[in-house]
Design brief:
Elements lengths: L20 E8 L8 H12 L9 H27 L6 H18 L5 E7 L6 H10 L2 E8 L6 H15 L7 E4 L7 H17 L5 E7 L3 H5 L4 H16 L6 E6 L12 H10 L4 E5 L8 H17 L4 E5 L6 H14 L11
Parallel strand pairs: 1-2, 1-3, 3-4, 5-6, 5-7, 7-8
Helix pairs in contact: 1-2, 2-10, 3-11, 4-5, 6-8, 6-11, 9-10
The chain binds the ligand C=CC1=C(C)c2cc3[nH]c(cc4nc(cc5[nH]c(cc1n2)c(C)c5CCC(=O)O)C(CCC(=O)O)=C4C)c(C)c3C=C and fe (ii) ion (FE2) (2 copies).
Length: 350
């Protein structure tokens, strides 16, 4: 009798003879190619033209997008991008590349044939272009990991759309696994809590800790988006690890666009209210962002710091995203190992 096939503890996708590639595709939001108005306009046209991001009838939204947003917003956004741009490029791109390299190295130890690649949902390198390169190398199995700890249709489902839009054109589609979110991974909350503790060990500790997540319209939550619940659960898991009393922390949502109500309370109003209420020092952490980007480095660390000071506060200290921290990479590697387990052996003539 053959021994029963045990569930492998490590990535079974590794059992892949040459020419039958297994890959992890990390996908982040994307960012402009350069911090100038033209590049930002091109990026925003693709981003805000996605019906997963702006859920309005096209006949209503496209005239606003092309008539109001694209003529006006890009020059303002380009200025914000210039404030955070690095010699190596946009922080979102540079840091996502660093996570991809780190994850590739971490997985190579036990899964040497697994390729780890990064694509951007909007801008470059596009999901389609990276998938085609993988196809040309013989892609047979694919694990897609959107770089968003919490699920929203506006982010994770949009990544799913982009992957499927490309795969549906292929003759031979790969076997596919899609990781919808990972905020419930205990190691993820451990890593965020550790990053906060380390910040407190090297900087003065603020009177309060604010968890600021990117917002979405309330309408999306009413339609069934689990995002708000997942943000609240994320904060609760981190608070529990830090053993914070209720009055030591708050949660808010940032980056609202347009006039309809988004998830509340809003971050800008919250930091202003805290400053007015006599809070002198405030720490802000943004656990919805896997890596730092415009929304953390400019909107929180610059704009909201200014709002806080204008309202009477003295120090708003931004606690960086997990970026390429070793515990972040280890968390993602574990996630991939678990989602990559249990795949059957390749058939001899596949
Ligand atoms: C208009 C609708 C938007 C929705 C819905 C939305 C959801 C959403 N976005 C992120 C993550 C990021 N957003 C970033 C920038 C950004 N977001 C919007 C709009 C929506 N986001 C705009 C218009 C912009 C562009 C910048 C600007 O012009 O102000 C970024 C940063 C990109 C970078 O290059 O650094 C990230 C990351 C999440 C997680 C989310 C829903 C949960
Ligand atoms: Fe956004
Ligand atoms: Fe913003």
């Amino acid at each position: 009798m053959p021994a029963p096939n045990p569930t492998p503890a490590t990535v079974s996708v590794t059992a892949s003879p040459a020419g039958r590639e297994c890959a992890v595709l990390l996908v982040n939001l994307g960012t402009p190619d350069a911090p100038d108005t033209r590049s930002v306009r091109r990026y925003l046209r693709e981003f805000l033209g996605d019906p997963r991001v702006v859920e309005l009838p096209r006949a209503l939204w496209l005239p606003i997008l092309y008539g109001v947003i694209l003529p006006l917003r890009p020059s303002r956004s380009a200025k914000a991008y210039r404030a955070i741009w690095t010699p190596a490029g946009s922080p979102l791109r540079v840091l996502s590349d660093a996570v991809t390299a780190g994850l590739g190295a971490a997985l190579r130890a036990d899964a040497p044939e697994l390729t780890v690649r990064l694509a951007m949902r909007y801008g470059n390198p596009s999901v389609a272009s990276v998938l085609r390169e993988l196809r040309d190398a013989g892609l047979r199995r694919l694990i897609v990991l959107p770089m968003y700890p919490q699920y929203s249709a506006s982010t994770a489902a949009s990544v799913f759309d982009a992957v499927v839009d490309e795969l549906r054109r292929w003759r031979r589609v790969p076997e596919l696994r899609f990781i919808a979110d990972y905020h419930a991974e205990p190691a993820w909350a451990d890593a965020v809590a550790a990053s906060i503790r380390e910040h407190w060990a090297t900087h003065p500790r603020g009177e309060k800790l604010l968890f600021s997540f990117h917002g979405i319209p309330q309408r999306y939550v009413r339609r069934g988006d689990p995002y708000e619940d997942q943000c609240r659960a994320s904060a609760a898991a981190i608070v529990q690890r830090l053993a914070l009393p209720d009055d030591a922390w708050q949660l808010s949502f940032q980056s609202r666009v347009g006039r309809e109500p988004w998830l509340q309370p809003y971050t800008d109003e919250t930091v202003k209210a805290l400053g007015r209420a006599g809070v002198r020092s405030l720490d802000v952490v943004c656990p919805g962002f896997a890596v730092d980007c415009l929304e953390t480095l400019e909107e929180v660390a610059m704009q909201n710091a200014e709002f806080f000071e204008e309202a009477g506060g003295e120090h708003l200290r931004y606690i960086p995203a997990l970026n390429d921290r070793a515990d972040h990479i280890a968390t993602l590697a574990r996630l991939i190992r678990r989602h990559g387990g249990g795949w059957p052996e390749f058939a001899p003539h596949g």
